[in-house]
């Protein structure tokens, strides 16, 4: 048998990506030459391309057992083990590689991947930096290092890394895109906008960059630009099934049967329905929203039909449909267009309001509703505040406090009472998560509200209630709170912001001073 011919044939098939055929030839060769590492490595490469990682690992381990002085084989084996989430085993082989080839930056780089996968950012950062010491032009290490620095909230460090990457590759889409994220997290919005735009020039198909740029423009109150790309919020998400059956709304026509449908969370649905006040002449309007809000909205907007968002709607019942957020591109296209924003657009149940006033109000003190946590899975911690950090720093002699926070708060309230003798009243029978109608009435019974940026803030703002909202600096800040101390969407809300992402001390101090001026 002409084995030289089979060898050439096998490697030609690999070259032309005929992996199934190459596998047959290589198996024949390995049967004849079982300790030939070239054939073992080639077959491992074929198996990887045929998505058989397990067999590839077996072949590479056999090759290393024959001759461990193979840098590429050690690297490939470690990378395959990472795919199998066998990180300790992968590191065993990178350590062998580092002993044999201490100047091979790729072993440090792979260690960075391993430490990142093990959620050990400190060691991942060190590994990527070690890789770059050996090869300062290794662009993949810059990208991975910048990513882990961003994830660790070292945004300045990430900026430095991505700027260095742009010196090497000025047209790197990934560098511009990730640099934009870094600047966005630092609150340097103009620089973030510039780099998102550069990233999209290089790769116009980056849908996430389009959405991020839209949100950034909306944050900066560039509304006409922001709404244009806001459609990209649906990237990776499914619209309700009825949107495929009912024509999209291209213009607001009061004579058309329009179905507006709620999107995202309760807070977004409330903030977008503030624009319903502009549609008073629309007699054929139906709004599909979260069922917890229907009773409130039926009371507040008599001429509009409100239905549950989860239902499927007959395409013959409507001429067109529109997501509530898309009202913005018709009705809120500039800062001046917010002049028509209603200070109050939701109405609480007057009987429930009177009940709560009788139960909690005092002639000697103002009733202050408080809410201090957000349950948002991604950014809730950045928006929340420790109750013990907040209340003792306020002038509590002039207020009675009532709990507006959804969830079980018994332990926190008891701790505040025992340690600081500050009582926070609570309506024990009220389910503040599900019974939003009663929660709205409790908020309306208050003289003033202190809250973080959660559903309570939206309800209080929609009531026109005097509200002080504690907001994060950058991370955790949602675009519709914009910048500054005033809210465009809720004129009754005064926003008190962190000056950095680290401490609530400054905003609490400002809140205490503001409250003192309110009661004196």
Characterize the structure shown.
- The protein is of the alpha/beta class and 520 residues long.
- The protein folds into three domains: 3-202, Serine Threonine Protein Phosphatase 5, Tetratricopeptide repeat, CATH 1.25.40; 241-340, no CATH class; 362-519, Glycogen Phosphorylase B (Rossmann fold, 3-Layer(aba) Sandwich).
- The protein contains 24 helices and ten strands.
- It has helices at 3-15, 19-32, 37-49, 53-66, 71-83, 87-100, 105-117, 121-134, 139-151, 155-168, 173-186, 189-202, 207-219, 223-229, 266-273, 291-300, 328-331, 350-360, 380-383, 387-390, 410-420, 436-445, 455-463, 505-519, and strands at 258-261, 285-289, 305-308, 320-323, 366-371, 399-403, 424-425, 448-452, 467-471, 493-497.
- The strands form two sheets. It has a six-stranded parallel sheet with strand order 7-6-5-8-9-10, with helices on both faces.
- The longest helix is centred in the last third of the chain and has 15 residues, at 505-519.
- The protein starts with a helix and ends with a helix.
Summarize the structure.
With about 525 residues, the chain is α/β, with parallel strands linked by helices.
Contiguous uncertain segments of 5+ residues: none
Largest sheet: 6 strands, parallel
Report the top-level CATH class of the largest domain: Mainly Alpha
**Gap from first CA to last CA:** 102 Å
Secondary structure layout:
Blueprint: H1 3-15, H2 19-32, H3 37-49, H4 53-66, H5 71-83, H6 87-100, H7 105-117, H8 121-134, H9 139-151, H10 155-168, H11 173-186, H12 189-202, H13 207-219, H14 223-229, E1 258-261, H15 266-273, E2 285-289, H16 291-300, E3 305-308, E4 320-323, H17 328-331, H18 350-360, E5 366-371, H19 380-383, H20 387-390, E6 399-403, H21 410-420, E7 424-425, H22 436-445, E8 448-452, H23 455-463, E9 467-471, E10 493-497, H24 505-519
Parallel strand pairs: 1-2, 1-4, 2-3, 5-6, 5-8, 6-7, 8-9, 9-10
Helix pairs in contact: 1-2, 2-3, 3-4, 4-5, 5-6, 5-7, 6-7, 7-8, 7-9, 8-9, 9-10, 9-11, 10-11, 11-12, 12-13, 13-14, 15-23, 18-22
